[in-house]
Structures are given as C-alpha cells and as structure tokens.
Amino acid sequence: MGLDDIKRRISAAEEKAGRAPGSVTLIAVSKVQPEDRVTAVLDAAHRVFGENYVQEAQGKWPGWRSRWPGVDLHMIGPLQSNKARAAVELFDAIHTLDRMTLARKLAQQIEQQGRSPQLFIQVNTGDEPQKAGILADELPVFLSSCRDLGLSPQGLMCIPPEDQDPLPHFRLLRDLAADHGLPNLSMGMSADFETAIAEGATHVRVGSAIFGARDYG
C-alpha cells in the first residue's frame, strides 16, 4: 500500500523543514477509487479523506462512516451553490470557497444546520481563466465579505498550474495566509507535497500515490 510510504515521506519532509511531527494533515483523495482500495486505507486506520463530488461522496461515506468511526471528510472539488446544503451536512472541511454566491449559501446552511465545516478560500495563484478561485488581489475584500456573513475561513487552498514550478505559488499562498492571519494552508498533491510542506502546508491532498491510478472508464 502507498499509504505507509506517503506517511514516511511526510514525516521526513516535516523534519527537514523544522516542522513539528504531525503538523501536516494527509488528506487521502478517494474520488473515483474502487471500494476495496478505500476500505484498505480505512482498515489501516487512516481517517482523513478528500472527495471532489458531493453526489459521489453521499453515495459512499454515510455507510463507511458507520463502519469506521472518526472519519474527517474534506470537500476539495468545485462546489456548486445548489449543493451547499448537502456539503454542510456531509463534510467537515470545504477547501473550495471561491465566490460570494457560494459564501452566502454556505452561511445560510451553517446557520440553519448548526454545523460549521472548516473553510478554506481557494486562490487562483496562476491567474488561470479556466480555473476556479479568487485572484490574489481580490482576497482582502472577499475575506472581509465572508466575515461579514458570519463565516470564519481558517485557511487558503491553491492548485498551481500544471505546467509551472509550484514553488512560487506555494510561497504566494503562504504569504497571503500570513498577511491575513489564516493558520491553514491546503497545498501540495502527489507530485509536489514535499515542496509544499517545506513552504508551510498544513494539509496535503494525495490520491494516486496512495490508492494507485484512477480509472475514469
């Protein structure tokens, strides 16, 4: 299983960066993975998972949570505003807060349900027109508007452009978080999580390196 290897690499990266042991949360990205692969990771006592699609997560996790208590479930994919109710019901953290329409829906559902998932604002660090996320220079106003709604974002998330060195993007996100007093950084995936840890990541999102390649067929 890749889980043990990834955990060893995270521990080594924490030590190399002078970080406290256990200061980085490993989110095992289980989207589109076969049941036996995910349950093997659950059997190995890992409890933090990430999903990209609300409907897929609704079909899997209520049953698995009854068998494996203590699961911490993170929404890491684009979130449609009309799925806000289900997302607040199901997820313990939402990493993709990226627009005011969604912020208003989440604020409404958090108030109605009395559940308060941890919120990360997605920042489009590469200024990519096809990618979701707030632009870096929009963050101060967006964060203030979220707080006016009663939301309390605790961190930032980014997905660097595929064809670029991720390091400048991780450093930009780290600096933005520091400027705004946000303690959490969701950055780093299978190919670059060690670089992200060196730059202060508190949450890394690793899928294929744990579970194996996804089959979208």
Automatic annotation (TrEMBL):
Question: Which positions fall inside the Alanine racemase N-terminal domain?
Answer: 3-214
Q: Which UniProt keywords apply?
A: Pyridoxal phosphate
InterPro entries given for it?
A: Ala_racemase_N (IPR001608), PLP-binding_barrel (IPR029066), PyrdxlP_homeostasis (IPR011078)
The protein's matches in Gene3D superfamilies, at most eight in alphabetical order, are given as: Alanine racemase
Query: Which Pfam families does the annotation name?
Result: Ala_racemase_N
Query: N6-(pyridoxal phosphate)lysine-modified residues are where?
Result: 31
Keyword field contains Cell cycle: no
Summary of the function given for this chain in its UniProt record: Pyridoxal 5'-phosphate (PLP)-binding protein, which is involved in PLP homeostasis.
Family statement: Belongs to the pyridoxal phosphate-binding protein YggS/PROSC family.
User: What protein is this chain from?
Assistant: Pyridoxal phosphate homeostasis protein
Q: Which organism is it from?
A: Paracoccus acridae
